User: Fold this.
Amino acid sequence: MKAVIERLESEWHRAALARNLESINGRQQADGYFPESLTGTYPGMFPRTMGALARLWSLTGDWDRLALSLAYVFQSRRDNRFDRIPHIVDRKDDNGRIPIYSDVDQVDGAAHVLLAWAILAEHDLELAESAAPFAQVAGVLDRSTDAPYLSTCTEWRIQPGLVLNTHFEHTREWNYWHAYDFLSQCFVGAALERLIPFAEARGESGLAGKWRLRHDFLRGQVAKSMARRLEDEREIYAEMLLPTGREPVLFDGVSWANLAPVPSGWTGCEEARFAETVRYWHEAAEIRWDGPRITACDWTPEGHTNRTLGKVIGWDLLASIRTGEVEIAAASLDFLEQVNTSELYAEILNYDPQAKTWSLRDSGNGEQAVWLAWAILEARRLAGLETVL
Assistant:
């Protein structure tokens, strides 16, 4: 870890982290509204970013901030009599009501919010309940782990017993995918895993038992149905299964979604298979350029893009530390210092092999900047460095 520590403690990385933390905290409004973009690239507040904010603010001790923004998300559900977590919400109108900007259904986004509530409740249950009563949280988890998202009835060929995301927001083709993606399995699994103890503590044994059955079922199905054997006999996790109207098929690719055990914290994945997955992604998707090593965010046998995202750099940093590829972790920090030339962490970093230049988009993007800031703080924690600069 020596090389990683040297970079984390460098003047550039300490200053960049401090700037981004100030920006992240400074953009939160007094009512909890957290704008996703500072450049106008994206509208509104993305509730899915709560997963990243919970990870970050739990390290910095900003629990009141976390409660405030969680309360905003759950108010948007009540204001609109919405039975799930909205995709994008807007600023309050003149009547104090929170409009929904986008009602796209993303089960992984809901799981991010549920995980954020669990992280807060583990620290201060009363504060979490003030942001959203447990009954509301339980309602969202029930909905997210029942059909058509997750069905335990696998006797029919169309049902693999995995979490279906009807709008998985992917870098592939810059579009939504209707898929049983690995990221959704991990975040839904983590939400179940961390909310079960609260149901048990409340004496709701029926609810806790139902969630435990769903969790254990999902864990078994991920181990069985998301296993992918390579030509060299190595076994990795599949990026996603695609519905066909008949039996779902494994997608023949690997991407940032395969890093999901890192940000979700789910313990339901096999460590050896995860490590093999990370190594395979590193081998297959390296962007070739005259600079620090970096991995493209997605790859198929036909090739890969020449771009990465802020959160991908952060998740890869921690995945590489976790799997013992410390030299790749150090290279990620070198890449960030050399390429992220804007004041804040960028959303997208794209390489043009003809011009041999990198371009950046939406610097300060909420989801990307928060995840990357968390990853760097978490790397500091793992290295025994202070997390409050």
The chain has a mean pLDDT of 96. Residues 1-30+285-389 form one domain. DSSP finds 14 helices and 14 strands in the chain.
